[in-house]
Amino acid sequence: MNRTARIPLWALAAGVVAVIAAVLVALALLGKDTLPERQGPPIEDLRVERTVLNPGEIELHLRNAGPDPVTVQQAIVNDAYVGFDGGGEPIDRLESGTVTLKYPWVEGSPYLIDLMTSTGVLIPAEIAAAVETPKTDGDFLLSMIIIGLYIGVIPVTLGMIVLPVLRRGGQRWITALIAFTVGLLGFLAIDGTFDALELSAAGGGVFGGAALVFLTAALAFLLLSGIDLWMKNRRQRAEQSGASPWQLALMVAIGIGLHNLGEGLAIGSAYAIGELALGAFLIVGFAIHNTTEGLAIVAPLAEEKIRPWRLLGFGLIAGGPAILGALIGGSVGSPEIAAALIGIGVGAIAQVVIQLLPAMRDKAGKLLTPVTAAAMAIGALSLYLTGLLVAV
């Protein structure tokens, strides 16, 4: 009999993992002393993650993305050397630092900034139009909550009042609206991916950039797929569509909620650095844009008995994250965190689309029919057109 057969499986697996970990730790500790020294100049890659403007000073939040420590020695604003605090000490790999420039900036003016390292490398930063960064006090937080309600909870809930119309439309209308939802969510996924990639590029890509976006999207997709399977096993409801109407509606609400989280992040971040005009037209634009999302939530529930408080619950799940996103975006201001969270929303939306596809099939089992194809196109086009109302 094999000796390993007498050992419990969990103990055998733990032993293998312990041996692998021990070898890797030994390589990390001893490998540096056994390898030859690297030749050539140091590699300096310091990136500006966030810019904060206070009266008479410009605060730059930095992160070292290179392998070697970086020390800031000089600061240049519009070709003039300026005094600063926070430099002189090396910033190690992946660590952050803050440099505060003593400079009487003028509101609305553009500024080009160069940070000179101890080796003479210039780290550029740009301010398109200087605006004082709002403080995260009580009034600011209240403003973010109100914005989240205006662009998230209220319009999504309003979109769900179409449910009585759905109940009288028949199965063909229900299938068409589900196809409309798929087109809408597909456009959200594409649009969210581009937004996340743009934000990751603005953050410098210290933690992976585009790779981080796709990683978080994949993880969200796999996690929600696992949760969905767990829910099906718990309920033990094997329907032909592959999921109950309640599961579909919940997954749609979660996917839209994660997308609205990213939307709130974008708004909060822009508001925090003074790049967003919060006018009535903007609020109306977002409201119209997100009202269509309420239609997507109630599409699977056309034949279900629903009480108003349940619809309100779906509205909070789908629209509430916009409030959280606005608070995080206005307080943190990290482009890469925002990009990662939007990536989560993209993965969630992809999982929801897969859940909805079986419900689009007709009696013959066809997925694409003239009705469903047209509805998908209208869904994507409607979200694109309403998105034009939002000028960020």
What would you say this structure looks like, in words?
- The chain is an alpha+beta fold and 392 residues long.
- It is 57% helix and 12% strand.
- The chain has helices spanning 9-34, 138-159, 163-169, 171-202, 210-235, 245-272, 280-298, 308-331, 335-356, 370-387; strands at residues 46-54, 57-64, 72-77, 80-82, 84-85, 96-102, 111-117, 122-127.
- The strands form 2 sheets. The chain has a 4-stranded antiparallel β-sheet, with no helix packed on it.
- The N and C termini lie far apart (70 Å).
- The model is unreliable at 235-241 and 275-282 (pLDDT under 50).
- How does the major sheet shape up? 4 strands, antiparallel
End-to-end Cα distance, whole Å, is 70 Å
Q: Tell how many strands the DSSP assignment holds.
A: 8
- Spans of 5+ residues with little confidence (pLDDT < 50)? 235-241, 275-282
How many separate helices? Answer: 10
* Major β-sheet strand ordering: 1-2-6-5
Tell me, rounded to a whole number, the average pLDDT.
Answer: 75
